[in-house]
Structure formats: C-alpha cells, structure tokens
User: Fold this.
Amino acid sequence: MAKTLTVKTKVLNTATHKVTRGFGGEDGHKGLDLVPGSTSETPTVLAYDAGTVIATGNISGIYKTTNTQGMGTYVSIQHKDGSITRYQHLKYNTLTVKVGDRVKKGEPIGVYGRPTTGNSTGPHLHFDISFPTKPEAPCIKSTYLGQCRFYVDPTPYLQKGPAAVKYKVTASSLRVRKQSSLSAPIVGYLKKGDIVTVTGTQNGFGKVSNGWVSMQYLTEA
Assistant:
C-alpha cells in the first residue's frame, strides 16, 4: 500500500504525494517513487528548486535497463548548493525545458508518466537528490554524468523544502496579492529592482513577506 507523504515542496502538481517505493533497500534504490493521490490524475512535474537543466531525455517505451534508456523521459537539474535532482519516467514528448535552461522552484518541467517510460512497471515519478560530497545522512554512492555522486533519502527534503531564495523584481510595478491567485485582492506593490525572499511557491506565485507575487516577474538574485 502506498504511503502518503505530506510535503512542503511539491514535485507533482497534486494535493497528495504517495510513495510506492522508498529509498535504499536491498536493491539500493536511489530515490522515491511517487504517484498522485488519485489514479485518474496526470499532473505536471515541478522543479524542486531553482537551478539549471543539465540533462534531458525524450525516450518512449519500456526499457529494462539501468542506463539512460532506463530513465525514460527525464530531466536533471543542478542547484546552487551543488545538488542534482532527477525526475524520471515522465510521459514521452512532454518536456517543457531543455539543457541550459534556468528554471525556478515550482516551474513545470514535464508531465507525469502516463503512459510510463523507461525501466518502469507502471506510471510513477522517480525523484532523487544527490550531492558531490558525502553527507552525514545515509547515502548511496554512484556515478552520474561522469561524476561521483552521493544519493540521499529525498523524504526530509520534500518535507522541509529547499532554503528560501532571494529574487529580483523585473516588472516596473509588481502587484502583491493576498492569496496565490490573479483574482485575490491586491495588498501592495513592488518596484523593479526590489529584492524579495520567496519562501514557497503555489499556482505560479511566490510567497513573500506580505503576500504572493507572480514568479513570472522574478529572477533569481
């Protein structure tokens, strides 16, 4: 039975994340296999944190291998702290990013794998996090893109989320809204060049100290 995981930072644009396969075990599983709360949902896959896309694959079909084809349609993102997150088994031909793109936390990068791709027995998102140096937490050592990496259990990272990120306002006058919706009341304004700290994202909006602003008009400072 899938275990429900309460997350602070979503990697599936769905209310509930369920874990169908955990980290580690006898086979050394490097991440978490996640599904949405409802089997009828086909949500978008979201970037865990801001970063640069360093690898992608647009692969269809099932491949019982552990190489790139086994990842199916996938995205890899390098983050400012040196970590890399990987999103595997997405739906074929749904990627919205390419190598070299800068992405923001919570930005859509593709579509949940229905039908699944790669070394997968059914629709799910394989999500993992690795670091270039060995952390204190239990980890699995492996090589990726020619680098020695240390994979950790993503559970606490999804539960606490990445560190708050500072952004610069690019719009001449950016509305601050009470909730993360274009129909929500305006509670203030930011001007071009202002630096804000975003502590969370939702519906394309970032949470700032006095409300919510559109992430479209922010760039990482």
Remarks:
- The two ends are 43 Å apart (CA to CA).
- Residues 71 and 127 are 11 Å apart (CA to CA).
- The first strand starts at residue 3 and ends at 5.
